Amino acid sequence: MTTKTIELDIRGQVCPSCLLLTLREINTHHADLSAGRLSLVVLTDSRDATGTIPAAAKNMGLAAQLDKVEEYYRVIIARPEERL
After folding, report:
1. How many angstroms separate the first and last alpha carbons of the chain?
2. Residue 68 falls within a domain, yes or no?
């Protein structure tokens, strides 16, 4: 199965805006994320978002992987069984 990737670049935003923008994307694409047809990559420079976004994704039944990349963070959200 080919998985599409959507990138959401919210660098420069602060919480709760980071969380709200991410939740909007998750809700819009939840069926595809849950089915493994899509992964969502969130780019953020907000340290607060590194806790709130993965927790929210997990509460919605999705997996979240957090990586530090240079001066920002990358959160990959996908179906729990998918290898991130």
Report:
1. 15
2. yes
> Does this model's pTM top 0.90?
yes
pLDDT at residue 32, rounded to an integer: 96
Residue 48 pLDDT > 60, yes or no?
Answer: yes
Amino acid at residue number 41: V
Q: Quick one: DSSP state of residue 51?
A: H
- The type of residue at 24 is R
Range of the domain at 61: 4-78
Which runs of E-coded beta strand occur in 1-84? 4-9, 38-44, 63-69, 72-78
Residue 47 has which token pair? 């340290």
